[in-house]
Amino acid sequence: MFRIDILAVGKIKKGPWAELLDDYQKRMRWAVSIHEIESRVTDPKAQQQDEMKQMLARLDPQSFVIAMDERGDGLRSLDFAHTLQKLGNSGISKISVLIGGAEGFTDDVRAQANLLLSFGQQTWPHLMVRIMVLEQIYRAQQILGNHPYHREG
Asked: Fewest CB atoms within 10 A around its CB: which of 37, 84, 112, 145?
């Protein structure tokens, strides 16, 4: 149904994070790719600019863009699934999910987003957000497929 690119700042090394990501990716019926963005710049502001430049360069102009941002809307899993369903019903098949680094997004990257999405008011490590995004995409896939993985209570 969807082709989803996750553009994420930072590189995951072998270990539990990578194993969990692999587990979710193996479960997916939708095509989900993770593109890691790294900067060799050490100054935090210059590093942010470099990361955002790389992110924008990889962004597919035909894609519906979701930026994971603390200023974004918090959606319940069911609402996220229904949002994806509405996108699919309107003919959108390509989605890009953006995950920033320690400095977050620049305004020009935020402006590219069709949806700012938040996992709450707390700050989360970008590696953990990557896993949480994959889990929510998997959950949405299961909800839309009427699979009992998701339970409302």
From this structure: 145
Q: What are phi and psi of 99, to 5 degrees?
A: -125, 115
Question: What H or E segment, with its residue span, contains residue 87?
Answer: helix 77-89
Model's pTM, two decimal places? Answer: 0.92
What is the 3-class SS of 21-81, one letter each residue? HHHHHHHCCCEEEEEEECCCCCCHHHHHHHHHHHHHHHCCCCCEEEEEEEEEEECCHHHHH
Burial of 105 (0-12, 13-18, 19+ CB in 10 A): buried
**How is 109-123 classified by DSSP, letter by letter?**
HHHH-SEEEES-SS-
Domain coordinates of the chain in residue numbers?
A: 3-144
Strands 94-99, 64-74: parallel, antiparallel or unpaired by DSSP?
Answer: parallel
CB-based contacts of 146: which residues, under 8 Å, 6+ apart?
none
* Tens digit of each residue's pLDDT (9 = 90 or more) over 49-105: 999 999 999 999 999 999 999 889 999 999 999 999 999 999 999 999 999 988 889
Give me the helix-helix angle, 77-89 and 126-144, nearest 10°. 70
Query: Rounded to an integer, what distance in angstroms lies between the CA atom of residue 140 and that of residue 117?
Result: 15
CATH superfamily of 3-144: SPOUT methyltransferase, trefoil knot domain (3.40.1280.10)
